[in-house]
UniProtKB/TrEMBL annotation:
It is an enzyme of class 2 (transferase). Keywords: ATP-binding, Glycoprotein, Kinase, Membrane, Nucleotide-binding, Receptor, Serine/threonine-protein kinase, Signal, Transferase, Transmembrane, Transmembrane helix. SMART domains: S_TKc. It comes from Durio zibethinus. This is non-specific serine/threonine protein kinase.
Length: 348
């Protein structure tokens, strides 16, 4: 059993230079960089919550689940007034995957293709861990902003404020949980958005969006993709896969880095994850295995080592489904904006 340090408000004020070291913000919390003395010599991240429910949900997940690909909880502070509610966790110096994919500072090294694959594998392993415990945890907001990177580019899933904890006994007899829709527009499972039925496959869809974002370095809600204005990243990428135009998806900065066979395998998995029908999506453990094999394939090709798995030969361009899910409209009144990235959020 792990024990977590109880910090005082004064300790946090000292650690953050009176909360001047802000590094992130959301509608439900602010994040500060802190320097804790004595036994905690490493830099930490301090999340200041504006909502009791969000804090309790984050604590419930992080205090009961420990995995290399899940951000680690160090301590908490419930000192002083009702507004002073904090959790302290490990600091991730490389920021988020979103920061690395969409940064404007060209002086920093570009994320290579193999590094992107390794990050995706790590994030998928963290998600697999959440989906296999008791209670089962559905993250509900998988996106590149919630995949953090440590000094060695090791990926860790973060931000569990809207996660759902589902007892294993429930998941055995019921295929879904009915709940108000929550998450980030552009990443939300369309079947969940339509029905309110939440399953682990909702996280798989969101992770499929992440896979396409990693490959293209385009944001999910860009509306000026090539000549198809008004389409989402997923719609455009899926059309490219169906029409055999995979080269168009690739981040131009990765030119000549991706082996064609590797691109084929990776795009096929992203396509399957973003199927509108959840029962046709793979499980996250299947995604982990395929991504690991995709990385192995890339490395074998680079090393000129023969490797031609049967599953690769079986991949063919998919046929576009002619009966999509019913179109739905999201009213502006149902949306709120993030303070720092202008993405639209749906919350409980």
């Amino acid at each position: 059993m792990r024990f977590y340090r109880r910090f005082t408000l004064e300790e946090l004020r000292t650690a953050t230079d009176n909360f001047r070291l802000k590094i992130g913000e959301d509608g439900f919390y602010s994040v500060y960089k802190g320097f804790i003395k004595d036994s905690f010599k490493d830099t930490v991240a301090i999340k200041w919550f504006k909502d009791d429910y969000c804090l309790s949900k984050e604590m419930a997940v992080l205090s009961n689940r420990h995995h290399l690909n899940i951000v680690s909880l160090i301590g908490y502070c419930l000192d002083g007034s009702e507004s002073n509610k904090f959790i302290i966790y490990e600091y991730m110096p490389r920021g988020s995957l979103h920061d690395q994919l969409h940064r404007r500072n060209d002086s920093q090294p570009l994320l290579s293709w193999k590094k992107r694959l390794e990050i995706c594998i790590g994030a998928a392993r963290g998600l697999e861990f959440l989906h296999t415990g008791n209670p089962l945890i559905i993250h509900r907001d998988i996106k590149t902003r919630n995949i953090l990177l440590d000094q060695n580019w090791f990926a860790k899933i973060s931000n569990f404020e809207i996660s759902k904890l589902v007892p294993t006994s429930l998941s055995e007899w019921d295929s879904h949980v009915i709940t108000r829709v929550a998450g980030t527009v552009g990443y939300i499972d369309p079947e969940y958005l339509l029905t309110g039925h939440l399953t682990e496959k909702s996280d798989v869809y969101s992770f499929g969006v992440v896979l396409f974002e990693v490959l293209s370095a385009r944001k999910p809600r860009e509306i000026d993709i090539e000549e198809g204005q008004g389409r989402s990243l997923v719609q455009w990428c899926r059309e490219c896969v169906e029409e055999g135009r995979l080269d168009e998806i690739i981040d131009s900065r990765l030119k000549d880095e991706i082996a064609p066979e590797c691109l084929k395998a990776y795009a096929d998995m992203a396509y399957k994850c973003t199927n509108e029908r959840r029962n046709e999506r793979p499980t996250i453990d299947a995604v982990v295995k395929r991504l690991q094999l995709t990385l192995l394939l890339q490395e074998c090709i680079e090393a000129d080592v023969p490797f031609s798995p049967s599953w690769l030969r079986s991949i063919v361009p998919p046929t576009k489904r002619t009966e999509p899910l019913v179109e739905i409209e999201i009213q502006d009144s149902e949306l709120s904006e993030s303070d720092y990235d202008f993405e639209e959020l749906l919350r409980d």
